Recover the amino acids of this structure.
């Protein structure tokens, strides 16, 4: 029997704005399955995003959805979660939104270890504005603002999240569709800041400029790049050149922000 | 329009002169039921530099919240005296710390000197209460509020463990102020 | 029972007013001369089960306030010039998404870092035109510590009633000075909460104006699922580029203030009945003006004071009437000529309009105002 996605999607809101071959739809379906796995009551689930193609995702989902300003999703989400900690809070967005203009909010949400799940779709480019390079565009690649090749080094988003203090960090790719929902579900269940980085493809503005002849070719690249953490441990360093690790990269128990603030309230009220 | 009485406390940042101004304003407004406005200006330094705190007391509402003609001014340091001992009205009062202010600002007002820091350090044993010594002296010299109101406001401001210390400091300042007038 | 009174700094009075109004969320970032608002609320809000969060920057502070407000919290931020500049995009977001919130701006000199510990009134045009795009604005300009307490409460009421951001602007002088403040008893002052939807979650549309200019706002987590965006949108909250819907939405959001000026406006007049010269002043400068009026009256000069307490929407009617009555209007402000432009616009040449500007970190004193009055008459 086909999976019931329809009951999670707002009536009349499809078709979505994403291009044929874009991986964001795969991520959205993964997110729906994860929310179902965790039995999230959508009336008490806030899905928050910034600006960009990936940030249009919440609008399609039947929940408390908040499409904010460019880069600010994590900060809006922090306000929602602080004010109503009983809500489940999920943030969706892209690499440029989350780590360039929103980089400060991203790292500080990680530092606070506030209980939310950040699904970051890293497609290596600013798609919506037409393909300018992002902090995740590989060095040397072409973008509309790097006609001679990108001189910038990249962010490793997962490492950034771990370094900044997120207590759950996982990574997969849009090719690994069945892993997406498992990792997001783990992130939702985790008490603390969970970052799930999903390497994604943008055939229209990235693939086209960087000699990918088809979406299939882009998907194959994602497949080839991925090495599960367990497998990577057994491989020599040279075999990991140009690869990315996938799966749960980091998980720890540490104080969660809204729980910490509940203690502040107790102290203030003299309990 | 009601009469305004304007008092300025000045010294180095961290000497507690803003607090002295606040206590005086509390004595006037909360305890004696008059109108009072306290304001201050300070530089970016949390310690050092020169800072001032002004208190305007009146029987009626106070419009302009800053000093116009100062009735009484305190300067605890030379820098404060140079910078803030101005705008004092003719026949007004300037109280200086006698150890820390060598050059006396010129003007048509009465100048008095008391070793405020020394009194706090030697007679009370704590330099930190110099602001309360100064407040006691200024209240004695100006009658801006009653001795009782001043003392009550000081005690309302400090934690239990420091009440006795501050009471001593206030009384010493008040008595030295009265002596200086004669 | 005697009322609770205290000698409070303006910023402290603001924080106490916020608590009275039912504020349960503060998101902020430290900045002189507003920081005491945050400091006081960091202690007070958790006592009432509210939340205080110091965010990573000014923009995040504004974002957190909007996020919190959407869950139903009465939310506040406090800042000063540079911080208000940084918040502008999201102030616009709160406008278009019709999210109630209060922004305190303790004004200092500027532009840029300017004079952090010096007073200014140079953000008054920014309060109206700071964020991009057309939008309505409500800005209140209290002039004393007691008034800061009361106007902060009114700011929350207006924000909740009109579903929009409301700014309270006062300068460093009033923010940092201390005066006697009388606390209101519970129930003594009006406290308005936003209107909750009367329809079921299934029928709810967050921007449905068929029953009035200000659509009820549901709270996240109260059973209502809805979409909020900074894009132009239709009644259901979803983006639209349909010309007639975009036009209607933008106009409604401006009309909801323009059509309710009588409810939002607030001002004080002092000796204006027979005045030949009006001093049009707000905030701390109005206190110098009142002092000057008293001095001028002693000299037989018929001066009066008009003091807006609601600065935006602009008091057009009152200003126009005074322009017809008086020979001159003097506008002293701690900037180099901002509100005077509005006064001139509304006076339409019916009387002389003259400005007194000051930006050196010192207040405009009564003598300066009296001098200008004599020069103009």
């Amino acid at each position: 029997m086909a999976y019931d996605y329809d009951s999670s999607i707002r009536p009349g809101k499809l078709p979505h704005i994403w291009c044929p071959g874009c991986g964001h739809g795969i991520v959205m379906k993964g997110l729906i399955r994860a929310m179902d796995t965790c039995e999230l009551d959508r009336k008490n689930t806030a899905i928050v995003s910034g600006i960009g193609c990936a940030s249009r995702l919440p609008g399609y989902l039947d929940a408390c959805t908040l499409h904010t300003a460019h880069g600010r999703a994590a900060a809006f989400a922090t306000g929602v979660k602080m004010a109503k900690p009983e809500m489940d809070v999920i943030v969706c967005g892209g690499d440029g939104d989350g780590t360039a203009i929103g980089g400060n909010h991203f790292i500080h949400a990680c530092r606070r270890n506030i209980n939310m799940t950040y699904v970051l779709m890293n497609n290596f480019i600013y798609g919506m504005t037409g393909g300018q390079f992002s902090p995740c565009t590989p060095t040397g690649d072409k973008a509309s603002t790097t006609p001679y090749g990108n001189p910038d080094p990249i962010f490793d988003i997962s490492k950034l999240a771990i370094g900044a203090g997120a207590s759950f960090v996982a990574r997969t790719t849009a090719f690994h569709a069945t892993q997406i929902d498992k990792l997001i579900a783990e992130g939702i269940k985790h008490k603390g800041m969970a970052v799930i980085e999903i390497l994604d493809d943008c055939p229209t503005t990235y693939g086209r400029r960087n000699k990918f002849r088809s979406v299939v070719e882009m998907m194959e690249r994602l497949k080839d790049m991925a090495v599960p953490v367990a497998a990577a441990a057994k491989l020599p360093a040279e075999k990991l050149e140009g690869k990315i690790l996938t799966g749960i990269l980091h998980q720890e128990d540490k104080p969660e922000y809204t729980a910490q603030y509940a203690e502040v309230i107790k102290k203030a009220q003299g309990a | 329009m009601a009469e305004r009485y304007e008092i300025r406390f000045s010294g180095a940042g961290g000497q507690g002169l803003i607090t002295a101004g606040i206590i005086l304003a509390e004595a006037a407004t909360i305890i004696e039921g008059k109108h009072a406005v306290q304001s201050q200006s300070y530089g970016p330094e949390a310690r050092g530099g020169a800072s001032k705190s002004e208190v305007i007391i009146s029987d009626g509402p106070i419009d302009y919240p800053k000093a116009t003609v100062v009735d009484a001014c305190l300067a605890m340091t030379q820098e404060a005296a140079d910078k803030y001992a101005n705008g004092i009205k003719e026949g007004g009062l300037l109280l200086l710390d006698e150890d820390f202010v060598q050059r006396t600002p010129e003007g048509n007002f009465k100048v008095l000197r008391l070793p405020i820091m020394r009194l706090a350090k030697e007679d009370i044993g704590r330099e930190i209460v110099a602001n309360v010594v100064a407040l006691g002296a200024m209240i004695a010299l100006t009658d801006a509020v009653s001795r009782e109101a001043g003392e009550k406001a000081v005690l309302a401001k400090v934690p239990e463990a420091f009440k006795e210390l501050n009471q001593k400091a206030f009384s010493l300042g008040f008595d030295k102020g009265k002596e200086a007038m004669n | 029972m005697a009322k609770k009174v205290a000698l409070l700094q303006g910023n402290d009075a603001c924080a106490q007013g916020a608590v009275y109004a039912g504020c349960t969320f503060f998101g902020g970032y430290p900045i002189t001369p507003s920081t005491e608002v945050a400091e006081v609320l960091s202690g007070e809000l958790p006592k009432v089960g509210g939340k205080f969060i110091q965010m990573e920057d000014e923009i995040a502070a504004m974002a957190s306030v909007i996020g919190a407000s959407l869950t139903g919290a009465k939310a506040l931020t406090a800042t000063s010039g540079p911080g208000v500049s940084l918040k502008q995009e999201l102030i616009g977001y709160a406008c278009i998404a019709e999210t109630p919130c209060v922004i305190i701006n303790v004004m200092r000199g500027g532009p840029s870092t300017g004079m952090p510990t010096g007073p200014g009134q140079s953000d008054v045009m920014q309060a109206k035109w700071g964020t991009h795009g057309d939008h309505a604005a409500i800005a209140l300009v209290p002039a004393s510590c007691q008034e800061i307490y009361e106007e902060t409460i009114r700011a929350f009421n207006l924000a909740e009633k009109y579903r929009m951001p409301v700014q309270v602007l006062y300068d460093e002088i009033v923010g940092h000075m201390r005066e006697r403040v009388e606390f209101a008893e519970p129930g003594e002052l009006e406290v308005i909460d936003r209107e909750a939807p009367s329809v079921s979650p299934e029928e709810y549309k967050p921007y449905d104006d068929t029953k009035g200019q200000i659509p009820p706002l549901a709270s996240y987590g109260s059973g209502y699922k809805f979409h909020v965006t900074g894009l132009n949108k239709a009644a259901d909250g979803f983006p639209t580029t349909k010309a007639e819907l975009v036009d209607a939405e933008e106009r409604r959001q401006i009309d909801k203030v323009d059509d309710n000026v009588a409810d939002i406006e607030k001002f004080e007049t002092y000796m204006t009945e027979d005045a030949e010269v009006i001093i049009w002043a707000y905030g701390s400068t109005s206190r110098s003006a009142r002092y000057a009026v008293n001095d001028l009256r002693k000299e037989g000069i018929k001066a009066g004071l008009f003091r807006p307490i609601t600065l935006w929407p602009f008091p057009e009617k009152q200003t126009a009437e005074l322009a017809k009555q008086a020979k001159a209007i003097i506008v002293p402000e701690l900037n180099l000529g901002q509100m005077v432009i509005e006064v001139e616009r509304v006076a339409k040449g019916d009387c002389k309009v003259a400005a007194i500007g000051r930006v050196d970190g010192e207040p405009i004193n009564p003598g300066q105002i009296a001098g200008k009055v004599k020069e103009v008459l």
